[in-house]
Amino acid sequence: MKIEIVDSKTPKRGSLVLVVGEGRQLGSFGQQVDKACGGALGKAMAAAARFSGGKGQWLEVLAPGGGSGGGLNRVLLAGLGKTTEVKAVAYEAVGADAVKRLATAGETELAIGAEVLKGTMLPAGEAAARAALGARLGGYRFDKYRTKMKDREKPTLKTVNVLTQAAPAAKKLHAPLDKLAAGVEITRNLVTEPANIIYPESMAAECRKLTKLGVKVEVLGEREMKKLGMGALLGVGQGSERESKLVVMHWNGGKKGGKPVSFVGKGVCFDTGGISIKPAGGMEEMKWDMAGAGAVVGTMAALAGRKAKVNAVGVVALVENMPSGTAQRPGDVVTSMSGQTIEVLNTDAEGRLILCDAMWYTQQRFKPQFMVDLATLTGAIIISLGHEHAGLFSNNDRLSEQLAAAGKSEDELLWRMPLSEAYDEGLKSPIADMQNIAGPGFGAGSITAAQFLQRFVIDKTPWAHLDIAGVAWSKKDKATVPKGATGFGVRLLNRLVADHYEDR
Ligand code: BES
Ligand code: MN
Ligand code: ZN
């Protein structure tokens, strides 16, 4: 599917989407099309009593008839609601829903009239650029393993033209957004792939592909990690036939020698729980226990793709958590790269064990301006926040506020959770510096996990931990986020960088 921004004029064929304000308000382009169709659109709106142009309402007008509009297969009217309240995201939703409605409808050409209606405060170029972004994100599909799709199930849509009066401005705004969408797609693909396809080595190979965007990619194997003393990370992977990997990605788009921003991702390519094995029901979901790492890869791709003026490092810890004769046992004591020892009481609390070494390495080597880690870390965060917010834990109010604001603008919501010494009690081990889970009765599993990670933050480095267990995978369709792997984190982090950390 090719998505392009073009000057608005009434298309002669295919399908066309027009935006409508509350009270059935068409814009000037809409009126022009209506005229070309001999007034068919106005009549259709009057006939469909329930269609008022309200937010999220759609009305399909088939074969809209005579005049020069006669070549159109259909016109879809998309309600935006009160025009004074319309924001850019509304255009993303229109682009996304339009593509979803027509992807498999037999149509090959779609035009989206992304005009800004009277009363809406939004640059025309922005509306069009966001509609195009929405079309790509909402039109995402993962069909590669379906070999028996019936013809009528297959997507037919070949081109999407986003029509605007401000094509040059829209194209300029759209270029970086399209790179962002490409980053989100990389993440969604990695997260959707099953664990027989994406395992540490193959995921590292996917990271290497960022080289073509100008990202420098280093891959450390078990030998190198052993030399570095990453006993916590290596302990998690020791039960697997697959070699653990640590991938370091550098994007140097900022001032030479300037301190980088840094992102660290949990990449458990499959989490069986290890010897503390998980129940069978639903275990297949643990193929996406590498979504934090996936988001880091997608973010690096987005930053490099749009040539962001920032120095950024992305570090992903890639392991497979398996039970076997060589697997780590409950009660084993491991020594992390920091020198701190950890008693592994539960081998299913493995995310923190790989992150602690990856975080230490990142800070020691790069002295970053800040470090954000992303991890599908705890089931408990789903109990707290469901699937609407990711948990945000941070030692720094400024970073925390920047992240929360970025999440709001990109609709990747965060909710701040507490960190506090009082929770440390549960991590006391009778034999080592700490244990990897709090004992029974402590509760607050997501917070104790974050407290554990905080012990690996060096010298008050501004740090934030995003527990994305509830938001990395979705069972319901949202406009720009179809069911399945969401790509959560890429838009958020890209926005964080764009708003606060790029050289001007
Ligand atoms: N990957 C899981 C967390 C998870 C659960 C992610 C459900 C997505 C959906 C993590 O490694 C894990 O197993 N956490 C345990 C920790 C416990 C043993 C302290 C959990 O949440 O049950
Ligand atoms: Mn686990
Ligand atoms: Zn896990």
TrEMBL record:
Chief localisation class: cytoplasm
Residues the record lists as binding Mn(2+) 2: 266, 271, 289, 350
Residues in Cytosol aminopeptidase domain copies: 346-353
Highest taxon in the source lineage: Bacteria
UniProt cross-references to InterPro entries, sorted A to Z: Leucine_aapep/pepB, Macro_dom-like, Peptidase_M17_C, Peptidase_M17_leu_NH2_pept, Peptidase_M17_N
SUPFAM superfamilies for this protein: Macro domain-like (SSF52949), Zn-dependent exopeptidases (SSF53187)
Keywords assigned: Aminopeptidase, Cytoplasm, Hydrolase, Manganese, Metal-binding, Protease
Active site annotation, chain numbering: 278, 352
Coiled coil (residue ranges): none
GO biological process: proteolysis
Cofactor: Mn(2+)
Binding note for cofactor: Binds 2 manganese ions per subunit.
GO CC field: cytoplasm
Known role: Presumably involved in the processing and regular turnover of intracellular proteins. Catalyzes the removal of unsubstituted N-terminal amino acids from various peptides.
Protein name, as recorded: Probable cytosol aminopeptidase
Organism: Ferrovibrio terrae
